[in-house]
Amino acid sequence: MIELAERVRKAGSVYLIGNGGSHANAIHIANDLISCGIRAYTIDPATFSALANDFGHFTAFSKWIAVCGRPGDLLIALSGSGKSLNILNACAEAERIGMDVHREFGAAQGFDMQAAEERQIWLGHELLRCLRDKN
User: Fold this and answer.
1) Alpha carbon distance 100, 75 (integer Å)
2) Would you say the C-alpha torsion 102, 56, 66, 89 has a positive or negative sign?
3) Which residues contact 106 (CB under 8 A, 6 or more apart)?
4) Are 85 and 61 in contact (CB under 8 A)?
5) 10 Å Cβ neighbour count for 52?
6) Residue 42 φ/ψ, nearest 5 degrees
7) Of 30, 35, 129, 133, whose CB neighbour count within 10 A is largest?
């Protein structure tokens, strides 16, 4: 956890993505990071739906990252399965432009969907503790 907190501190900005409950968790974690003085962002529903409509659901996050992300930023990708193409495409785009990428994929850690989403919130709260206690 300390290693991820250091990556968050080092990043110019932190972008968080996820689908469904994972997106709700991304918003929660972004708010916690902001409370610690970290520039953290999630995509808003209007932008996501516009990009999905114009370019396709599987590229909506990657289009957002291509426009907003910069080398040295950090993408935190939340996914229960780790198989969602829109998440995987965003990770690939982030790496292409020189962003650091943290994948929090529950299935890869042996979690079912509910445990994966609980782990995401745990991760966010642990980050909050690490960052808050260092300020």
Assistant:
1) 6
2) positive
3) 79, 80, 81, 82, 112, 113, 115, 116, 117, 119, 120
4) no
5) 16
6) -125, 160
7) 30
With a CB cutoff of 8 Å and minimum separation 6, the contacts of 54 are: none
Which two structure tokens, joined as six digits, stand for 112?
A: 């079912």
pTM for this entry: 0.96
pLDDT of the chain, 135 residues: tens digit per residue: 789 999 999 999 999 999 999 999 999 999 999 999 999 999 999 999 999 999 999 999 999 999 999 999 999 999 999 999 999 999 999 999 999 999 999 999 999 999 999 999 999 999 999 998 875
The encoded tokens of residue 91 equal 């990770």
